[in-house]
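Retro notes (design track)

What went well: tokenization of the new backbones is finally stable.
What didn't: we kept losing track of which sequence belonged to which structure.
Fix going forward: every design gets posted as structure first, then sequence, in one message. First example under the new rule, 280 residues:
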């Protein structure tokens, strides 16, 4: 009897898992297949999941016959530069916040970073708006890069600080005895052994900046500065209705960089986030 109940319980678990998978994957599949449908087939009734005739027309419109190709390049450019900027500062500050260093104001700086991380973008968007206008960086890539970098920096700095804390202090002391400066220790010892941790932080930072919406929406007003998330919002709330084919195509294009990054860097994410699990 117990064996029968266990068998039925396993069947229930598998059915629940299948239902959850179906509920999660179906909307994604619907968007993917809709991006390959013609406008007539998208509005046909009854609706169909698989397109009768596959067409790349929606992607052609997005990439070559509209301004959205420029928006995609803007997102790539802004994300790459901002990620590099954030990682450079986060590595240096995360290294300086470890237990290997002791200086006046260290605790205050760490608390300030925590507070900066907790403040939502919407709470500071108005003072940021006036500040960026006053310094002449409104509607510029430079202004957007600086703002999204400032929003992504606190998390990156604290992640790296946590990873660097897992490195034994004796390793720092041994390097200093051998005559290494603080920067030499970082360059020759800390960075080489922190590859997975730095990689996982870089990926999280990249995804955070790539998905940034409020800042580009507020401070980007022309084709030269608007990003892909803003373009998706414009398509979703168009003046003459929603173009579902183009909206589906641009959504797939927005997901592709993150999907590829996640696939190729999966092992680094797992290794970095669990790097300190076996410490001690």
């Amino acid at each position: 009897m117990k064996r029968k109940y266990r068998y039925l319980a396993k069947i229930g678990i598998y059915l629940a898992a299948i239902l959850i998978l179906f509920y999660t994957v179906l909307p994604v599949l619907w968007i993917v297949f809709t991006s390959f449908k013609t406008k007539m087939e998208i509005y046909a009734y009854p609706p169909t999941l698989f397109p009768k005739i596959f067409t790349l027309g929606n992607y052609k419109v997005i990439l070559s016959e509209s301004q959205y190709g420029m928006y995609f390049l803007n997102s790539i450019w802004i994300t790459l530069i901002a990620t590099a900027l954030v990682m450079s500062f986060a590595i240096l500050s995360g290294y300086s916040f470890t237990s290997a260093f002791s200086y006046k104001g260290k605790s205050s700086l760490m608390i300030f970073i925590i507070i900066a991380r907790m403040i939502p973008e919407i709470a500071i968007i108005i003072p940021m708006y006036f500040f960026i206008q006053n310094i002449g960086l409104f509607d510029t890539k430079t202004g957007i890069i600086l703002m999204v970098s400032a929003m992504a920096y606190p998390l990156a700095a604290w992640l790296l600080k946590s990873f660097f804390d897992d490195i034994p202090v004796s390793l720092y002391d041994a390097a200093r005895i051998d005559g290494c400066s603080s920067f030499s220790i970082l360059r020759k010892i800390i960075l080489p052994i922190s590859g997975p941790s730095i990689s996982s932080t870089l990926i999280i930072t990249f995804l955070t900046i790539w998905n940034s919406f409020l800042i580009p929406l507020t401070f980007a007003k022309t084709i030269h500065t608007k990003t892909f998330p803003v373009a998706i919002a414009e398509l979703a709330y168009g003046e003459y209705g929603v173009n579902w084919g183009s909206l589906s195509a641009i959504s797939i294009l927005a997901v592709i960089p993150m999907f590829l990054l996640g696939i190729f860097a999966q092992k680094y994410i797992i290794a970095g986030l669990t790097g300190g699990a076996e410490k001690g």
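Added context from the reviewer: The chain has 14 helices and no strands.
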